[in-house]
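Hi there. Long-time user, first ticket. I'm pasting a complex I've been working with (about 931 residues overall). I'd like to know whether the download I got is complete or cut off, because the file seemed smaller than I expected. Thanks.
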Amino acid sequence: MVSNNATCDGSLLSTDFQIAAKAFAEKWKKFNSDFPEWLWIDCSNRLGFAAHGVSDGYLSVQNVFFKVQSSLKEEHGECSSNDYEEPFDNATLVQSAGDDGHRYDFHIVYSFSYNVPVLYFRAHSCDGQLLNQDEIEKNLPTESAKVLTESKWTFITQQEHPYLNRPWYTLHPCGTSEWMKLLLANENSTAENRVEQYLISWFSVVGQVFGLKLPLDMVKSDG
Amino acid sequence: MSGERKGSILQFATFQSSVDEGFWHGLCSLKLNKLKTDESPISITGFYTLCSNPHVSSHLNLLAESLPTEPSDESPTAATHGNRNKCSVPGTLYNTNTYEGYQSLDKKSLLKAEGKKIWDDIRSGKVEEDSSVLLRFLIISFADLKRFHFDYSVAFPALALDPPATLVDLKPASEWFTAEEAESVSVCCNEWRKSSLTADVPFFLVCISSNSQATVRPLKDFKACQHEDFKILFAFYDPYHGPNNPGWPLRNYLAFIYARWNITKVPFLCYRENRGFADMGSSLVGEAIIEPSQAWQDETHVPQVIGWEVNSKKKVSRHIDLSTSMDPTRMVISAADLNLKLMRWRQLPSLNLNMLSSTKCLLLGAGTLGCQVARMLMAWGVRKITLVDNGKVAMSNPLRQSLYTFDDSVKGDKKAIAAAESLRKIFPAVEAEGIVMAIPMPGHPVPSKDERGVLDDCTRLCELIESHDAVFLLTDTRESRWLPTLLCANANKLTVTAALGFDSFMVMRHGSGPLSATDESKTEPVGSLSADVEKMSLSHNDSKPRLGCYFCNDVVAPVDSTTNRTLDQQCTVTRPGLAPIASALAVELFVGILHHPLRTSAEAEFGNSLDSGSGEQPLGILPHQIRGALSQFSQMILVGHSSNSCTACCPTVVAEYRKRGLDFVLQAINHPTYLEDLTGLTELMKSANTFELDWDDATDNDDDFVEI
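Hi, the file is complete. Here it is re-exported in full:
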């Protein structure tokens, strides 16, 4: 199943993507139980691929909750003055504005142009208002902001999501195979092992942009 | 808050909605393609799941699949049944055609009408079959399809008990149950959640037998359970996370339990999970006491309904702006920028995209060259383009002139206008302008009645050149380039010329102007050079000469080149591939000049001879002229310095123009030999005749001082 040359040049074969995705999701579930699970979204029927026995799809994790400092919170919505007023009701709990977090959806999608995984993501406040790039960058850990300005490979751009056909933000994949090659060079493991380890190594770098650090146990190849 | 003290009013944590961008995408296309102006209510489906994170409540989600695929489709929910993380909830959407319509909707009566539906379902017993109708919701909206702004309000209608229910006790399920009961409840709830038949049924009964064994039953089994010796808990999927209150679904649940079964002491279980499994620590158990109400016995009575969702500012109406992800114009801009940014990030870190997008380019001529140059400029991120042309789109044009279509030629539109329009169609963010205007030409004498118009054109051209940063000379005759060349030399503008022969082309940049823009008295070319150039040439006695313009290498003044010519000589008949090649080179040259620190004063560079110099510029060398011949598939880099006898850019001509202005221009137009006399070309030609020199013919009027 696993091809011999996979990952030697830092790229991942499309046929190995699902294997790597499965390994990643399983390990993630084992070591990151505080986070929602990664789910494989099967899109095999999208382009009639199923007929050729090629599985097509992506990994998805939804509603990852990030607490936001209240100073960064922005109230969207201009409200007209003649707004309807809900009558007072003493059986309704008056909630302090407690739920002020942002929700992130992450998708790991295979790029057939670059032969590497690509992280697509979007962020929204709890009412569904999407965050724009500036707001997202403000949310990121300070180290990431620095990385984003200095590094050539982790810049955020808006791209059409290949499966949803709506614009999502993405970390551009043009440098991925280069640094993945460096990352995988140190591993003297079998090709199969390398495919299974691929997304874990990849996410250990990419996830840091969002302050998502992988537990060390997960990164260890024999875990 | 409440809950700790006995007998306090039972307060419910409000349900919260979360409308996904996909819902609005879907609504837009539904509105455009199917509903059109139809404002009738639409049945939609909301999705919710119970709280699965001890710190965050879950929401009622409206997604793309919440909308019906067909307006006639009565049950859009069918496909999603059985998903434990997406319990389907029926809802109604009122989408209005106008903002005013949205505002004037009667929220109170709409809410009441939805509440009545719930009440009727309770009365009829439908709830026992499909408990999700207790969670029925309502959304009203106005979708601004042009701006991609959405105004909306969501309501979760709740039938208010009057007086409100009180709470006897509320504590974590793990404390309420014995360890054995808790274990058994967890097991059977997990099973309930695992089965695709029941996973998305949000209301159910937990029956605990005297030997601490729990079973989970659907609502319709209530009567049966009653006869057995069970402790019955009314359980529901609670979206709320807090430890002191039950979530909103319990409200209508209590109303149902009281109205249907006349129970006034209701033990309930707020069922919550963690990591996908029952969590007795965060689940709550309590007992609600309902005061019997006489009015509720009356068949026709409908309880008071409340439930409009308010935001943190206590406002019901919400506003959402999705233009960044839905407006195609904004999306194409970000996509276009991406391509250029990629170049910058990878190959050309010093690429100055802001400079490119802010540089105003004036294109004189909107033919094969003009069209192609405009497209190339847009590809490089130039956003401000003005095209000047006098002609109409002819039938033969669309094939070679890439901005025109057959329709333009049928309508006979003016080229400048059609080209600008076409640029905007290709890329809506371009600031393109078309100006219909003839360029006054030497050798085309002006009758006195037309003098005024020609002088106006001169003034206008002068203003256009002044107000732009870069000028491209792309007309098809030599003489039409004379006045622009002079004006550019006078204003010291970045100027690029492209000219075509049948199978040869020439692309060049003009050197800087001979006179500084402010100092009119100086006529010596040396004094006009920029300070930078002077510094660079300290080692020489003389400053390095200026680079030449299109006319610097000619020994004749421009004359009428079209009269008395056959058609193939008049039109620029060229090999079709030539214009795109020359245009592309012209734009690349332009980008090179913009990125050179000395701009127009930059020396001519060659591939091999100036290794040290060329290595510094990320875009490579900056040549003066590029000449190519398609017949040989060859290209040459040349340099030609400015001539002191040039009819367009020499200090004498520019100074004369500054002194006499339009009078001088008019004289040059009407008397071609005037320029030759003024610049000393007449003298030069007399002396040249003593040599046997073979001056090239008129297609290019070329021949240069090749310096290599």
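A couple of notes from our side: The domain at 359-688 of chain B is CATH 3.40.50.720 (Rossmann fold). Chain B has a mean pLDDT of 85.
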